[in-house]
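Example complex used in Figure S2.
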Amino acid sequence: MPVEWQPKIVGFACRWCTYAGADLAGTSRMQYPSSIRLVRVPCSGRVNPSFVIRAFQRGADGVLVAGCHPGDCHYTSGNLFTRRRYSLVQRFLGYMGIEPERFRVEWISAAEGARFAQVVKEMTRDIQALGPNRKMREEP
Amino acid sequence: MREHQTQVRKTAEDLMKTGKARLFIGYTEGLEAARPVAFFLKDPERAGALVLNEFCGAGLAKYVLDEAVSPDALSGEPLPPVAIVAKGCDALGLERLMADNRVPRDELYIIGIACHGIVDPGKVLEVTGEEPVSAQVEKDHVAVMTTRGSHRLAKAGCLMDKCLTCEDPTPRVYDVLLGDPVQEGPAGKRDFSGVTQVESLSPDERYEFWARQFQRCLRCFACRNVCPACNCSVCSLDEREPEWLSRSTDLPEQFMFHFTRAYHVAGRCVACGECQRACPVGIPLMLLNEKFMKDIRDLFGEPAPHRPSEVEPLGKFCPDDPEGWLKEAETA
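Predicted assembly (472 residues):
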């Protein structure tokens, strides 16, 4: 029986919401694919769009940027800037040819462990259907 | 344009003679008749070398950064301003620099030119096979004199790309305006047709398209260096620590470069088209800038995202902004 190909997903998780949400998913023993590698950031507003390109360059098959719901930002407005920024960046990545399944922005609160698990499951499934990412990728 | 050449020379001479300006930035003859170059006039006697015609398309805005330094460092005396010739698009560039606090308004003396469009010598060569020598933009066509004869050309066929989508033919800021204000650009409004064309391709085709464009990139940084919106004193693309961009010209680095350049001017681009004009390998950079412009217009309801404003679209937010990554994120 062949081993199923696992995508590599880089997740940028805000330390106040999504990272705690991922923690909750873990402590609650929720099952989700081990395809995601979380990078903890102080706020989703910290995620420079160049991070996303760099992740694709270095072999990520998908990238997730996740933070608090609008209105719940620990820094009041960080994620509201993020929302504007990534509304444009997500569309721009698509414009450059990255498939929409490979890049997602999600609002996941500290209480939403199940939501976190769900997003990782969905992304893994979608990217498995697409196969490995070759775009913008440096030769390994 | 040509009809104002005498006025420009006279204005320059007066300003320099009376000491009302410390430098006059305009155009002079280049190596070819249809390719005038920037000219920095300090000696009023040389004002006769200034030219102004239908080929003066290069933007001069960025040059003021090299020149506009406030009070004289030695004496502490404030210096007279820098005078600069500016068409509608150049004035937008100057507005950009002022909005970014790179140049104070009183450091500039702007000679505004109401513009009817600039002739692109490359396009004329393509259409007629001859080098243009002079041109006159008429109401519904352009009369071009070439080395071998004269031609009546359609505007779309011989004006610069930026002129075909121009919305500000008359400068919005100036100290003196030459010519009557022009209300309409030579060919109507920006319709983002180029962007829509790329959007209609499949993701793989889009990637192929950009890969083909970026493969030619020499990484000469001309696009960054001429751009009035790219005016940071230290550019992240030059940084060695952290090194966002390696010196290699492999395709992944080209994507990093072009993504970053376009993103850093998102919401700040004034659509002057200088990047595309300066690109030695003809990469359609405005297609990248216009994508951001189109999305800013659609998502955040900015009617004219190319006009510098108090706060940039990405420097502010509304509580009810749409989430542009959702399929149903509809236009504002």
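The CA atoms of residues 7 and 125 of chain A lie 9 Å apart. Chain A touches chain B through 34 residues (CB under 8 Å).
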